[in-house]
Amino acid sequence: MAIITVQSVFSGAGATTIAANLSNALLRQGTKLSTVDACSHNDLRLWYGMPLSQSGGWALGYLDSISDSREFAFRSDFGATFLPLGEINDNYDQLTNRIESDPQQWLSWLKAGSDDWLIINLPSHCTRLYQALIPYVDLHLGVWQAEPRVYPRMQQFIVKQNLHSEVPNAFVFQENGVAPQLELNRDISNIINHELADEVTSPVGIMRDQHVAEALATQQSCYEYSIAASANADFAELANWVVKRCSPA
């Protein structure tokens, strides 16, 4: 099984958007996969049409040592399978501490199904969670957007994740919200991409597309909301690159 983790370099950069729509692009290719939300905001469910009245999820089940993670899986109308975090409130630190103490146990628990791929949406603020999981994943996408705060935030991120000395083989920076028609966005994007080495950057940027926000507002994937959305081509291209990178040679 290939394991992919997705995490924003700073809050709001779009990791949840990437995780959901990349998962759906892989699903359209016939890939058997599940997407897992590990963010305390529990927002991944919004991409899959999960009723807001349903507050359950895998987190409390894992803390209670329920044997089968599939008990908490939700299947969308278009066939996507994901595991919502659920309402956990004050137990979130307890949950992350348990995962960090034995990440292999958690990953084995999540892999209880017959899926070939597992995509995990990580919270931007959990450095220790990233550090615990990175040795066991096939690909980690560090999502960023070209905006005025990106440079100092990325410097902080590199220091916190200890990327200045050695970048794990699985780590790749993923640009989101690319808008070359906007001068400030274009200039910041050029600066950041100039400073990042090619081997640690995804070759596929996700263009800014209003359809993405509109899809989220209607609790659908971008593809389900509008087949003609330009972002769909970006997610499909990203899915192709991910498959080539993560599949055995």
Q: Key features?
A:
single chain; 249 residues; alpha/beta; 8-stranded mixed beta sheet; 10 helices; 8 strands; globular
Please mark out the parts with pLDDT under 50 across 5 or more consecutive residues, or reply none: none
**Strand elements, count:** 8
Mean pLDDT metric: 93
Rg over alpha carbons: 17 Å
> What portion of the residues fall into strands of 2 or more residues?
15-25%
Would you summarize the structure shown here?
With 249 residues, the chain is of the alpha/beta class. It has helices spanning 15-28, 58-63, 92-101, 103-110, 127-133, 150-160, 183-195, 210-217, 222-225, 230-246, and strands at residues 2-8, 33-37, 74-75, 81-83, 117-122, 139-145, 171-178, 206-207.
Your description of this structure?
Strands 3-4-2-5-1-6-7-8 form an eight-stranded mixed β-sheet, with helices on both faces. Helices cover 39% and strands 16% of the residues. The protein has ten helices and eight strands. It has helices at residues 15-28, 58-63, 92-101, 103-110, 127-133, 150-160, 183-195, 210-217, 222-225, 230-246; strands spanning 2-8, 33-37, 74-75, 81-83, 117-122, 139-145, 171-178, 206-207. The chain is α/β, with parallel strands linked by helices and 249 residues long. Helix 1 crosses helix 10 (230-246) and helix 3 packs parallel to helix 5 (127-133). The mean pLDDT is 93.
